[in-house]
User: What shape does this take?
Amino acid sequence: MRPRQVHCTFDITARPNGGVGVIGDSLTFSYFGGLDDALRAQQWGPIGIEARSGRRTTVTIDGRVSATSGIDALRRLRGSGFGASIWVVALGTNDTAFTAGNPAAADSLIDKMMAEIGADRRVVWVNVFAKSSNAKARAVEFNGRLAAATARYPLLSIADWFSLASANLGWFVDDVHTNFDGAVARNEFVAQAALVPRCPLVAPSVPLQVTPPPVVAATATAVAVATQRCRV
Assistant: This one.
């Protein structure tokens, strides 16, 4: 079993595209710091990221702080004073075993997360992927419920990680977790997907180059940077 880990980042530098919040699981904290840099490269800021291994969307696993729910993470970020015009939700991988064959359960957790974020915020939800046949079938089913949810939520877009991952199986070290190259590519994909105006499905328009994203220096008008990371 992988050790449970936490990755938290708060960067208060203001950038042209505005504030973005990211809530994720272990796929989000792969290649520590990489997603932060990718978001800065796309001129997002302030940035708030809260990612925890084993995280589910609405359920805290066994009451353990190391795997609190996505809703808990959203409340913590907002409780710290962080606000964002767009939220990236990179969750669902750890939910599919519980929603398989039960579309109402998938719809319920999506609805709860969307309600918590609020109807006046853009949301990009990164859909899920798995390599093995049974897990892939559950991922496809969950992704179908995400796609259906765009009819209920006009400001919801789906970032199609499933398609990109399916075309690059060499990125994976197991059923769902990526190697370094895959983590860099995923970070770039998420940062780019957040820029796309609302549409039901956001797919990569060109193959992504697997190179570490550059760090964008703060401009003279930017406020001071404050970055905090935590791991347990």
Q: What stands out?
A: The chain is about 30% helix and 15% strand. Helices lie at 34-41, 70-79, 96-99, 103-117, 133-149, 161-166, 180-193. The radius of gyration is 16 Å.
